[in-house]
Amino acid sequence: MPNTVYVEYNFEVNPLQPASDILIAELGEAGFESFVENDEGIVAYIQKKDWSDKILESVNILENEIFKISFEVKEIKQENWNATWESNFNPIQVNDQCVVRAPFHENPNVEFDIVIEPKMSFGTGHHETTHMMLEHILSHDFEGKSVLDMGSGTGVLAILAAKKGAKSVDAIDIDNWCFLNAKENIIRNNCEHINVCEGDVNLLKDQQYDIIIANINRNILLADIPVYGKCLGPNGILFLSGFYEEDIPMISSKCNEVELKFEKNLKKNNWVAVKYVF
Predict the structure, then answer these.
(1) Residue 167 and residue 258: Cα distance in Å, rounded?
(2) What is the mean pLDDT for each group of 10 consecutive residues in the chain (278 residues)?
(3) Torsion over CA: 274, 23, 47, 160 (sign)
């Protein structure tokens, strides 16, 4: 994909929270696929082929007078992406056990050292949803488990599951760049037994998993939860994120339809990561 062109929106947001989180969620619904958060706001990217001059019409927060949001727009070629994220990407530490870092960062003294080059993919650990899903994985037993990471992005969640002893991991993402990037990151972390696939929930036929991880968005989760329920084996666990605290009743209702029950959730800045069990 050497000739792929992205459109970059550099948003200055005041106050930062909760406006930045709402803006990211609405931009994601509009088709933006990658975000970098900074002290002034966020930088958002969308492939030029998916862009139009009306792309922001559905982003309602821009009309909210409570927040002051301005932006600049420019095109950016994919080969310039590394310089962009290297200037913004600091290592992320989760508890005292796990660090997510880039190859140019020093090797930390932690149990789980994950090295990624995110490029145009989502999932550096900076966003609250990824961070909380890493926390869930760290606090649960993955030894000998079969795992699905749905909407895998950079592959960071699949990689941690593998490092925690999962016997098999399927990582699925609908975006071609995420698919290619996850394969690179899996090799980089010596987790070659992770199976990376490009596609969506339609790839799940007769597969059975002990644990399913899905950090996507609310509407996709609501559509896919019935399939997750069919793919989970006895005593299966489902970890979901990509939505807000106020969405939990809606998500839980859909999970209850397939006999999955709410057990616990983590929360950061109104984002949540929820555990469901049979």
Answers:
(1) 26
(2) 74 92 88 81 88 95 96 80 66 93 88 83 74 97 98 95 98 89 95 95 95 93 97 96 94 98 93 96
(3) negative
Q: With H, G, I as helix, E, B as strand and everything else as coil, classify residue 40.
A: coil
Q: How far is CA 30 from CA 60, 110, 190, in A?
A: 11, 38, 35
* Other residues' Cβ atoms within 10 Å of the Cβ of residue 100: 27
**Residue 209 DSSP code:** E
* Whole-prediction pTM: 0.76
Question: Would you list the DSSP string of 49-107?
Answer: GG--TTTTTT-GGGG-TTSEEEEEEEEEEGGGHHHHHHTT---EEETTTEEEE-TTSPP
Taking the CA atoms of the chain, what radius of gyration do you get in angstroms? 18
Partnered with residue 276 across adjacent β-strands are: 238, 262
